[in-house]
Amino acid sequence: MTDTLNILADLIAAAKKGGADAADAIAVEATSRGVSWREGRLEDVEGSEGEDIGLRVLIGRRQAIVSTSDRRPESLKAMVTRTLDMARAVPEDEFCGLAPEELLLKGPAPELDLYDPTEISAERLGEMAAEAEAAARGVAGVTNSDGAGASAGSYAVTLMTSHGFAGAYRGTSFSASVSAVAGTGTGMERDYDFTSARHYSDLKGMADVGRKAGEQAVARLGAAKLKSGSMPIVFSPRVANSLVGHLTGAITGTAVARGTSFLKDQKGKPVFAPGVNIFDDPLIVRGLKSRPFDGEGLAVGKKALIEDGILTGWLHNAASARQLKESLTGHASRGTSGPPGIATSNLYLAPGALSPEELMADIADGFYVTELIGMGVNGVTGDYSRGASGFRIRNGQIEGAVNEVTIASNLKEMFRRMVVASDLEFRYAVNAPTVRIDGMTVAGA
């Protein structure tokens, strides 16, 4: 990474010499390898390598960003000139600028164990995918496979600013997935399972992944519709995390500043039921979205977004914090071709006290959702309407499969009625345990 730091330092020095008041530069290097396996045969092998550099220059209240994948000295020199010319030509943005110097990460970055040097060949990836698919096809009732895949990748991020920050980190990712088909003709059903981790040794067993995909597909056979009406809805963990995602979209500083958030006037107020807590923690060791600093070089740490049901505040980068006259939160994200955005890291809904079985025990007639379809969520009003499939709940027990159902409500009401189970697992960038919400509308038969 030393060579990359030197390149970024040279770019910033050249930009300052050319008339920039401030500048930052970021480099992202990534490699990946993946295989696809279908019906017992290798279907495809893919690989990629890339390295991009982005330069942002600020002249007064004007900024411009240019990126390149060409590291030749003449190309980088032309990049600086082009970026400066663009910055002089664009309109002013009163909120642009680097993050405050006093908030930058000082000293060594925290060690998060994000990089695994294990080399995985394409042959081994093929073996992993083959094992997962074979296990899925070995489940009674599974009639075919929609394919399996396995991949491995690595990346490095290097960031430097003209006011004293220089940092870098690297990470790896390993994953495998399989999709199984059960039944025949118009009665076919599909389902999937996957595993992903920073370290190869943390992956679930391929046979377990395949078996679960097959069992889930078989369980969906014979699906029926529900009668329309109001009933308790229980969201399985793999779809409950989407509810947390809707929250973060509504509490970014940019959405609040534009007035396009259904929570724009709810800061410091009860938004969820008492006892509900939602955290963002970028410092989880081996976390899928961990990072030692944010996209503007700020020190980061665990933050409660919802505390005992109360919305604690907004997510900010430097620009949105200036616009709303608030403190930064360490949520800046950065690519090579645009200004800093806003993003969470390891986001999760904290577990409650009840097991999923206890959460459902008093439901005489309800709906257990395992899949959501469509994007019918209005971020301005909070109106929520999505296609769903899953299983019926009768007298506290999960029974026959259900499909072709629409569930609807408003996120404000859904958040207030949310009851959280204890079965939190960290499998995604956003994680949640089983969640129950009473009083939602179901449109079915």
How do the helices and strands line up, and which of them pair or pack?
Layout: H1 2-17, E1 22-38, E2 41-59, E3 62-68, H2 73-89, H3 122-137, E4 142-161, E5 166-182, E6 189-197, H4 206-219, E7 229-235, H5 237-250, H6 253-258, E8 278-280, E9 303-307, E10 310-311, H7 318-324, E11 332-333, E12 341-342, E13 347-349, H8 356-360, E14 365-373, E15 383-394, E16 397-410, H9 411-416, E17 418-420, E18 430-431, E19 435-443
Parallel strand pairs: 7-14, 13-18
Antiparallel strand pairs: 1-2, 1-4, 2-3, 4-5, 5-6, 7-19, 8-9, 8-13, 9-10, 11-12, 14-15, 15-16, 16-19, 17-19
Helix pairs in contact: 3-4
Descriptive report:
The protein is globular and about 70 Å long. The model has no long low-confidence stretch (mean pLDDT 96). The protein is 23% helix and 36% strand. It has helices spanning 2-17, 73-89, 122-137, 206-219, 237-250, 253-258, 318-324, 356-360, 411-416, and strands at residues 22-38, 41-59, 62-68, 142-161, 166-182, 189-197, 229-235, 278-280, 303-307, 310-311, 332-333, 341-342, 347-349, 365-373, 383-394, 397-410, 418-420, 430-431, 435-443. Helix 3 (122-137) runs parallel beside helix 4 (206-219). The termini are far apart. The chain has 445 residues and is α+β, with helices and mostly antiparallel strands. The chain contains nine helices and 19 strands. The longest helix is centred in the N-terminal third of the chain and has 17 residues, at 73-89.
Q: What would a concise description of this structure say?
A:
The protein is of the alpha+beta class and 445 residues long. It is built from nine helices and 19 strands.
